Amino acid sequence: MFGYRVPAPDQAMLISGGRRGQGGAPFRVVTGHGKFVLPVFRKVRFLTLALCESEVAEKCVTRQGIALTVRAVIAFKVGNDTESIVNAGQRFLSDQEQMSILTGRIFAGHLRSIIGSMTVEEIVTERQKLATEVLETSKTEMAKIGLIVDSLQIQSIDDGDTGYIEAMSAPHKAAIQRQAQIAQAQATQASVEAQQEAARNQAEYSRQTAVVQAEYSAEVDRAQAQAAQAGPLAQAHAQQEVLAAQTELAERRARLRQQELVAEVVKPAEAEAERIKLLAMAEAERMKIQAEAAASYDRVALDRMLIDQLPQIVKEASAGLANANVNVLNGTDGLGEIAAGLVGQGLTILDSVRRNLGTPSPSDSTGNSGAANGNGTGTGTGHSGRVEIE
Question: What is the mean pLDDT of the chain?
Answer without folding.
Answer: 78
